[in-house]
Design brief:
The structure is a single chain. With 482 residues, the chain is an alpha+beta fold. It has one domain (41-481): Glycosyltransferase (Alpha/alpha barrel). Helix content is 38%, strand content 10%. It has 15 helices and 20 strands. The chain has helices at residues 44-60, 80-95, 101-117, 153-169, 175-189, 225-233, 243-248, 270-278, 287-292, 296-313, 370-374, 381-399, 438-453, 457-460, 464-472; strands spanning 71-72, 78-79, 129-130, 133-134, 137-138, 151-152, 203-204, 206-208, 212-213, 217-218, 255-256, 263-264, 337-341, 344-348, 400-401, 404-405, 409-410, 424-426, 430-432, 436-437. The chain has a three-stranded antiparallel β-sheet. Strands 17-19-18 form a three-stranded antiparallel β-sheet, with no helix packed on it. Strand 15 (400-401) and strand 16 (404-405) form a beta hairpin.
Amino acid sequence: MRIDRRHLLAGSASVLTALAMSSCTQSASMGGRGNRSPAPRVPPLIDEIERRTFQFFWEQVNKANGLFPDRWPTPSFASIAAVGFALTAYPIGVERGWITRQQARDITLTTLRFFASAPMGDARTGVTGHRGFFYHFLDMNTGQRYGETELSTVDTALLLMGVLFAGGWFDDASPDEIEIRKLATMLVDQTDWPWAQHANGGISMGWHPEHGFIDRNWDGYNEGMMVYILALGSGRHPVKDGAWGVWTAPYDRFWRGAGAQRHLAFAPLFGHQYSETWIDYRGIYDAPMRAAGFDYFENSRRATYANRAYCVANPQQWDGYSNQVWGLTACDGPGDYALAFNGRTAKFGGYSARGPLGQPDGYDDGTIAPTAALASIAFAPEICIPAAEALHRLHGAQIFGQYGFKDAFNPSFRDVTKKPETGAVDPVHGWVASDYLGIDQGPILAMIANYRSESVWRVMRNLPHIRRGLRRAGFTGSWLDR
């Protein structure tokens, strides 16, 4: 089974200080605000990426049960995280005029009914989840646990974020939308967060029926932030007070940079994107960010600039990196090979979390993922939109297809005698992935929508579970105080 990006947390050394982020203040005006106006002008290419990415979710969902594949076109099991992004995609499709409200309502109901009635229990097979949590991967047709995958707390959180968004967006008085809201609340509130909370207050990464809980907690700075917001905000099974303190306790190990570049670092950009797909952190502060003097949105903006600066500095001297072609995050790769490259032996990898060396989870093998820049568009449009345009202009024929940008490419891997794990190798353009991944496509679509109109954020700001979780974590300010 391929490595999962969400369980690749690692310690790190000091940061590589690359280029000064000379233009990093250009988007600072968005930080610290709960609203924005006027609506930004979106280039035609972004419109096209948004439309094609939506079609991925609309055309590849299993219409019989609402499950969504981990990847396509490679035959795949379902990913519950991808289902969360799919549930977020359908209302975006309605707002953009690509499907009707009735179509979105029908597939949303199908999905929520499936999870609400799915078999639960501590058996090793024949179940979909246990204690309100769901297995990371499910069989696309039966919806039952795939292989020996874990009962995942963070993937359940990604699913539930989509469930919450659906419950908040479908707000009319029709019987179907009333049922959507009822099922959404039931699914979110049935999750037994205290069961997954260790004695020290931290929340485990997951559980296996074969050998119990994963020892490692979600803590530090990464995509696990949403786990704690949901656990603190639960209507029926909230975790104890102090859990947020466990999450933030290791922050001292995550700070990188100085002055305008100082930020909580996590090398792959997905860690800065996943929670913020649904939660608007502009202008709200917990204790650590209050002390730092800027919010988590600004932190993610700085992380986006740091990712770009690292690629421009390009300490490994990979082909293709530039001030416009950049973006490191978790993605597919050509495979585990050690090949001659520019007078040295270069090591390449398959699916892995990627990001600047010297940051937590830092790993760089020359593989660029379009989702890294595209899903950061709400943080730093002034560098992310040019990146999208450059990727399309310079590599479009190889990496842009039916559902927008493919998962990843590596211009430095050009050895056609090597069989890649996935994708294909061109002697000139290098390796290109063959697949689209649900957990990479989802943030692209949702964050373009947030940039365009705050489409996801404006719904989530009003939901009691989110507001309660943030307040229990100590957040104050802006929209949360209204």
